[in-house]
Amino acid sequence: MADRLIELEESATHTGPKGVINDWRRFKLESMDQENLPPAKRELLRQMSSPHRQREDSRASLNRKMSVQEYELLKEEDEGCLKKYRKRCMQEMHDKLSFGPKFEGVHDLDSGEAFLEVIEKEHHSTVVVVHIYKAGVKGCEELNNCLECLAGEYPTVKFCRIDAVASGASERFSDEVLPTLLVYKAGELLGNFLACTQHLTGEFFATDVEAFLNSYGLLPEKEMPALDDDEENNVE
Dihedral, CA atoms, 223, 229, 233, 236, nearest 10 degrees? Predict the structure, then answer.
């Protein structure tokens, strides 16, 4: 039982100060060019990266404090490695928070069957925004352009559009109620906005549509963009 508890501790997620230090030790070892390191420093790095080298002292090793030698080593040429470590941690956090499929652009639906399929068969975590429009109706083209912009900002949201006539329900979606926005998740209708441009200003933009949908809590949090090397260098 004691051995099992130690195994569970050793396999635990690296959270808290001790877990972060141990994770950093391993990352430091993986990042350095060990072939060009002096043998003594290479051995020290190996020890730093293995806090549970032996079964009998694994618990003590996990809880040990950083030595003066380790501290001095971490100070040497450490800035670049620290930035890489931070970038990796941010990417791991991003990956854990991101789930479900990703989409690009606004998807055209050509029939009522396609409309029903996207509502009923899409991933349960995916928000589906459907724009019902008609060519020539005021506000429809502008709203299409806004949704194209938002599709790039919210890749986990599936933005769709369908012509009112192609939907097979043109009698329900007359020109007076267009453009219409319908919002679904897991097959459930969350938002039904007829003549939705009446809720916007005369000249509206993607940010206005975004704010309108967010006022009803219909859009997820924006994803954190991955940092490129130039952006990472500006992070202090």
Answer: 30
Q: How far apart are CA 16 and CA 19, in angstroms?
A: 5
Q: CA angle at residue 82 from 81 to 83, to 5 degrees? A: 90
Contact indicator for 101, 151 with CB cutoff of 8 Å? no
Torsion of CA 52, 58, 60, 61, to 10 degrees: -10
Phi/psi for 73 (5° steps) reads -65, -40
Q: What angle do CA 133, 135, 137 make, to 5 degrees?
A: 75
In angstroms, how far is CA 109 from the centroid of its own chain? 26
Task: Express each pLDDT in 32-90 by its tens digit.
Answer: 555 666 676 666 666 655 545 444 444 455 455 555 555 565 555 556 666 777 777 77
Owner of token pair 């319908």: 182
How does pLDDT run across 193-206, given as a tens digit for each residue? 999 999 998 899 99
Report if pTM > 0.70: no
188 class by beta-carbon count within 10 Å (0-12 exposed, 13-18 middle, 19+ buried): exposed
Dihedral, 131, 196, 210, 217 alpha carbons, nearest 10: -100
> Which strands, in side-by-side order, build the sheet including 188-193?
106-109, 158-163, 127-133, 180-185, 188-193
Report DSSP letters for 20-89, one per residue: HHHHHHHHHHHHS-GGGS-HHHHHHHHHHT-TT-SGGGHHHHHTPPPPHHHHHHHHTT-HHHHHHHHHHH
**Residue 87, both tokens:** 């970038």
